[in-house]
Structure formats: structure tokens, C-alpha cells
Amino acid sequence: MNEVKKHKPFWKQTGSKRGRKKIFQTPKILKDAAFEYFKSVDENPFIEEKPHASNGEITYSQTIKKRPYTIGGMCIFFRISQECWTLYRKRPEFVGVCQVIEEIIRTQKFEGAAAGFFNHAIIARDLGLKDKIETSNTHDLRVDLNPEKEMKKRGIPIPDIELEDIDE
Predict the structure, then answer these.
(1) Which fold, 20-129?
(2) In 3-70, at which residue ranges do the beta strands (DSSP E only) sit?
(3) Domain residues of the chain, as ranges?
(4) Of 156, 133, 153, the residue nearest 142 (C-alpha)
(5) Burial code of 19-35, b = ≥16 C-beta within 10 A, e = fewer?
(6) What is the pLDDT of residues 18-54, one digit of tens each?
(7) What is the pLDDT of residues 45-68, one digit of tens each?
(8) Are 85 and 135 in contact (CB under 8 A)?
């Protein structure tokens, strides 16, 4: 007699749990990966080439320019989206390490701009910094809308003209 083999329903065959496995299983793994990103940025600066003309010849000089750490650059390095980074920031076990990483990024940008390595206007905007100017007026300003009274006060002669005297 042929035995009929029972199969699991398809949805049970996949063996899949919800979602994929976390890329960073522990905060230490995330911290180590962030430090790899920082090292990679430090070891791979921008190189700017500038042409120079001298005695009819063009030569080029290279200037090494530091690169700022960024959340976006770090996410690309990790091969995750910024939305994924936001989810890690919300996980209770990752909150502390994410705060430290973000503070390192913020400090490197701020200090780099202060030292002239980065464009201060771009970094200030990125960090949400603003020049704030506050003004206060302690004088009481009163305006009299009666022009004749104001003219008398200032010693300006008032012309003796009636509206009927004006030609149209």
C-alpha cells in the first residue's frame, strides 16, 4: 500500500522568523563598526589637485583635506539605511552607544570647522547652530499724526493754503 506523505503547509516550510537577523547583535559590535568607519574616514581623506602655471608649464599640487564624519556616510559604510540607524537608536540596549557615536560625529564636525578644516557655514547648518541677535528697545516712541502740530514743534512754517486754493 502506498503511503501518502503529509507535507507542511507552505507558510510553515520557510522556517523564517519575522524580519532578518540584526546586523549588529550587540552594542559592542556596533561601536567597533563605528570605530572602523571613523578609521576609514581618517585614512581616506579628500585629495584636491590645484594647477599652477610657472615658466609656461602647468604643474599640479595636491592638498590633503580631512573628511567629516557623518551619519549618512556611516550608514553607507555599514550598508544600512538611515531609517535602520534610527531603529537602532530606539532600542534600549543600543541607546547609550548610539549617543556616544553621534556625539563623536558632532564633535569632530564642530572642532574641524573651528580649526578651518571644514566649511564653517555648512557644518553650522548641519549641526543646527545659528547666530542669534537680540535687540531690545527701551525708548518709548510716540508718533503724532497731526502734521501741523509736528511742524510747529520743529519750527517749520505752516503755509497758509486752503484746499479750495489748489487747482486741479
Answers:
(1) Topoisomerase I; Chain A, domain 4 (1.10.132)
(2) 46-54, 57-65
(3) 20-129
(4) 153
(5) eeeeebeebeebbebbe
(6) 666 788 999 999 999 999 999 999 999 988 888 888 8
(7) 988 888 888 888 898 989 888 999
(8) no
